[in-house]
Design goal:
Shape: globular
Radius of gyration: 20 Å
Largest sheet: 6 strands, mixed
Helix content: 40-55%
CATH topology of the largest domain: Nucleotidyltransferase, domain 5
CATH superfamily of the largest domain: ATPase, nucleotide binding domain
Oligomer: single chain
Strand content: 15-25%
Number of domains: 2
Distance between the termini: 32 Å
Structural class: alpha/beta
Length: 361
């Protein structure tokens, strides 16, 4: 069977993800069926520091990567030689962390003779929704919200995206985690803050919403909100009980309201009827409810992966890699790790790959 014949029947793609603090391996068939999805979290490694320590993340990846790959192969019942390709996150992310997954993928591709393809981390997040039974059609709008990224993009096809707006400072997930740390909720704090906010009064504390005027377009800013929370706690002291719940609810609502408002603006601008939300913050319950309500009011359909597909995972990388391989894309063993790789902005929709910066082969 030739390589082209393999694509005409079935595709078995191994995905690797190690861009930050999760070591993940997954095997996906035909870009739609997950045969194995293994994730090794590093929460315990970084919890004492209140955030990800890059050197510790890299060392944990070194310990976890081989067991994670073995577990994925055992779960799927496949061997490396039965795979049709290897996909790996190579940008953006912590360079040391990226290198662990990247070098592992290169070694497997070299030993087996299977094709290798690098995947942009955000393209991976955008691809998680295609594992669901009813994914959005093209074109559609996507809100990417995670610890390191907040962007609104137009998706015209697999790997064909145009960024319409992005955060100018903190990402939404960063604002959640830093706010939670300030309130003593631990790490990772976004999910805990969501839980504490349940039942709180979203109007209890007046907090700012930055860059909401029409002339600000589709870009975001969350640093001022984080600073406002800091001053509130300094002035009034560390809250507890109902006061803590109210403050968390107000803070969360301020983030969610801006995300939803900008998304509605982008839907009207792009004249699309389908919106997906992806990235770790897409698991936030308040954001999910608010976006569904906005869609019902404005007439657009909302698509959100289940929470396990919102956080970093390798299944989404395998899906994106499958579509890259189908398009005939291949990468050599010189494929670099890229710390910073923004999505392309208008004018002109171009592939996700952008001019490389901070490359490490």
């Amino acid at each position: 069977m030739t390589f082209a014949d393999a694509w005409a029947s079935e595709m078995l793609v191994l995905g690797l993800e190690s861009s930050c603090d999760e070591t993940a391996a997954a095997i996906v068939e035909d870009g739609v069926r997950v045969l194995a999805d293994i994730v090794a979290s590093q929460n315990e490694v970084h919890a004492r520091y209140g955030g990800v320590v890059p050197e510790l993340a890299s060392r944990a990846h070194l310990v976890n990567v081989v067991p994670v790959v073995r577990a994925a192969l055992e779960t799927s019942g496949l061997s490396l030689h039965q795979l049709d390709g290897v996909a790996v996150t190579n940008a953006p992310g912590l360079v040391g962390a990226l290198l662990v997954g990247l070098q592992t993928a290169k070694a497997m591709a070299w030993v087996t003779g299977k094709p290798l393809v690098g995947v942009h981390h955000l393209e991976g997040h955008l691809s998680a929704i295609y594992l669901e039974p009813d994914p959005p059609p093209f074109p559609h709008l996507a809100l990417i919200v995670s610890g390191g990224h907040t962007s609104l993009v137009r998706v015209d096809g697999h790997g064909e995206v145009t960024e319409l707006g992005r955060t100018r400072d903190d990402a939404a997930g960063e604002a959640f985690d830093k706010g939670a740390k300030l309130l003593g909720l631990g790490y990772p704090g976004g999910a805990v803050l969501d839980q504490v906010a349940a039942g709180g009064d979203v109007r209890a504390v007046a907090l700012p919403r930055a860059m909401t005027a029409p002339e600000t377009g589709l870009d975001f800013s969350f640093s001022g909100l984080k600073t406002a929370l800091l001053h509130h706690v300094r002035d009034r002291g560390q809250p507890d009980g109902a006061a803590l719940s109210d403050l968390c609810a107000s803070y969360q609502h301020a983030i969610v309201e801006v995300l939803v408002r900008k998304t509605r603006r982008a839907v009207a601008q792009e004249e699309v009827a389908h919106v997906q939300i992806c990235g770790g913050v897409a698991a936030n319950s308040a954001l999910r409810r608010a976006m569904q309500a906005a869609g019902a009011e404005d007439g657009f359909h909302v698509y959100i992966p289940p929470p396990r597909r919102c956080t970093d995972n390798a299944a989404m990388i395998a899906v994106a890699g499958t579509h890259r391989l189908r398009r005939g894309q291949r990468d050599g063993l010189e494929l670099p790790a890229i710390a910073t790789s923004p999505l392309p902005r208008r004018p002109g929709a171009t592939p996700v790959r952008s001019p490389a910066r901070g490359q490490v082969p």
